[in-house]
Design goal:
alpha/beta, Rossmann fold, Hypothetical Protein Tm841, Chain: A,domain 3, six-stranded mixed beta sheet, four-stranded parallel beta sheet
Length: about 280
């Protein structure tokens, strides 16, 4: 069985990595006024953060189901199966779109996978799946491996300004907590597929230190982990953080990533995150 791997643009896997592992990407959209852009296709993260400074906050949208159908039908010419890995179904309808599209195509079996997370942790699932697919592993075995990885997957992030999450409706129970949290740098995480506060922390430095400590709790086992340092237009700070982390945790392999336009719309510039899972 020949299996294709698909993910969406919110995994923020660099194009050269997608090309290397033959990962297909379906883009979500960011919309400024009447102008819609496919992220990672029509607009880069750098261009997005510049536009946000000059225009009103954009909205976002999932890929049309027809775009999924078109992609799956194209892949059916060369593949027997496709594993379609997407950002958490609790914050986007993208996964549901893949599920619906899977019922509309013939000659290829589609395995939608809800990462229950987003950004590069989602990308780590796609890369692992792609490596297995290129070795000729069966789709069922790859899906089992992804479920196994999900048991160890974690992601924590700090938003500089919660108003983006509140306005976008992506923060659970936002109205109940927004007043008390506006003066702090909250550490957020995914729980039951949605973004919720993990802890209220007073400063940016302490919030990032707390996230480092959470990684340390898992890395203390000495087992090999893979992790991603993720930033919203704070590349220099992210590189410094990555260097610090590599010294602290030699058993963790770190990569650099970013919050692109769609996730950046909801988190806002200045957000920092760290995601990891066992190798």
């Amino acid at each position: 069985m020949k299996t294709a791997i698909v993910t969406d643009s919110t995994a923020y896997i660099p194009k050269e990595i997608r090309d290397k592992w033959k990962i297909e990407m379906i883009p979500l959209n960011v919309i400024f006024g009447n102008e819609a852009y496919q992220e990672e296709v029509d607009i880069t993260a750098e261009e997005f953060y510049q536009q946000v400074k000059e225009k009103d906050l954009p909205t976002t949208s999932q890929p049309p189901i027809g775009q999924f159908v078109e992609l799956f039908e194209r892949l059916s010419k060369d593949y027997d199966a496709v594993i379609s890995i997407h950002l958490s179904s609790g914050i986007s309808g993208t996964f549901a779109g893949a599920v619906t599209a899977s019922t509309m195509v013939e000659n290829i079996k589609v395995y939608p996978f809800d990462s229950e997370i987003s950004c590069m942790p989602q990308g780590l699932y796609a890369i692992e799946a792609a490596k297995m697919a290129l070795k000729g592993e069966e789709a069922d075995k790859i899906m089992s491996r992804l479920e196994e990885l999900k048991k160890t997957a974690r992601a924590y992030f700090m938003a500089d300004d919660l108003s983006h999450l509140q306005r976008g409706g992506r923060l659970s129970s936002a109205q109940a907590i927004i007043g008390s949290l506006l003066q702090v740098k909250p550490v957020l995480h995914f729980k039951d597929k949605v973004i919720v506060p993990f802890e209220k922390i007073r400063t940016r430095k302490k919030a990032m230190k707390r996230i480092v400590g959470l990684l340390g709790e898992d890395a203390a086992s000495g087992e090999p982990y893979q992790a991603a340092v993720i930033h919203a237009n704070r590349e220099e700070e992210a590189h410094e953080w990555k260097s610090e982390l590599e010294t602290l945790y030699p058993n963790v392999e770190f990569t650099m990533s970013y919050f692109g336009p769609v996730i950046g719309t909801h988190l806002g510039e200045g957000a920092m995150g760290l995601g990891w899972m066992k190798k």
